[in-house]
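Morning, I've got a small favour to ask if you have a moment. It would help a lot if you went through both lines with me. Thanks so much in advance, here it is.

***
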Amino acid sequence: MNRRIEYIIDEILDQYMYADSTFRPWIIGFSGGKDSTVLLTLVWLALRKVKEQVMPFQLRRPIYVVCNDTMVENPIISSYVDDVLTQIEKKALDEGLPIYVRKTVPRLEDSFWVNVIGKGYPVPNMAFRWCTDRMKIKPTARIINEQIDEYGEVVILIGTRKAESVTRARSIRKHEKHGQRLTHHPTMHNTYVYAPIKELMLEEVWYIINAIPCPWGFDNKILFNIYLDASADDYECPTVVTDNSHGTCGQSRFGCWVCTVVKDDKSMRSLIKNGREWMQPLYDFRIELDSERNVIENRIPLVRLAA
């Protein structure tokens, strides 16, 4: 497994130093979850190799760690991510690495409560998922476009993996090209996509988090325990253990605490079950939002105006 990890680090180093002769910036979408943590870890270790073994003055390509805050994130994750971003920024400066943190938020008119309370939008569901574009895609796109305006092109590094799901594997294979690391972004001009960890299995992801010291000096046990507490009660995932305290961990997904697109927020329910009882009112309010979504009495009737 260590050889496999070293291979990915060396591939990232090669792409950063040699395979791409330009200095177009790299943008890492960082959620603070397990996959984006592993992605940033391996990129950080590759940059250390450049600095220590190759030529430090070659560290000219900027890397932007972009974190999107919808302003309705799961409070546990939101607090954790804020602490992590602070540490990333500090450690990158201390080590002289060209890693810069950028945190985005939706514009006021695109925020959740302005749309739900102010504009009267129904809360999102699969048929009307208005939140993703306004609260996530647009804020991140603004950062990307700023870099394109300055450098002409950008490369987005993503932490997607084929082993996540059949659908994700199909999507990755659809866009990848044999023998090429970079692929064109399907919707954004002058934008390329690089997925260094796409072949990693879940066990390898947890091995990296548990066995490799966090390069920005944070305690990865905090992240591990968040996943452990958020493990839904209907499934668990095995992990490669590095000591006796590592038993099993959930592969729960974290999102907005108000999210009504999912049928049930299993991660929040499990966090409550495992000691975060203060989140119960949030969980109950989310259910109330969902239950009242299609109550016709709550909607203003459509009035047809005469021509």
Notes: Strands lie at 26-29, 63-68, 99-104, 154-157, 182-184, 191-194, 237-238, 248-249. Residues 233-251 have pLDDT under 50 and may be disordered. The CA atoms of residues 183 and 193 lie 5 Å apart. The first strand starts at residue 26 and ends at 29.
